[in-house]
Amino acid sequence: MGEFITVEVKDAECAGVKECGRCVTVCPVNIFVIKGLYPEAIPEKEDECTLCELCLQACPFNAIIIHKLYED
Ligand code: SF4
Ligand code: SF4
Hints:
By secondary structure, the protein is an alpha+beta fold. The protein has one domain: Alpha-Beta Plaits (2-Layer Sandwich), CATH 3.30.70.20. The chain contains two helices and four strands.
């Protein structure tokens, strides 16, 4: 888990990497890895998220949530 940012993939909303996988492709800092059927953020890398929102824009199902822990 990141100290400042966590990137959550809601599996229930996600189409799966076989059908989609766009988040894995678009993230410029490779936050996502494929874990079984779904993408998952690498905990050690979450703080490297640049908040570019490319994954949010690419996801057809709004399955990704970026948590800015410093705002909580
Ligand atoms: S906001 Fe940008 S850097 Fe952060 S996880 Fe999404 S694509 Fe990657
Ligand atoms: S872009 Fe969205 S639907 Fe596609 S694999 Fe990523 S989280 Fe799942």
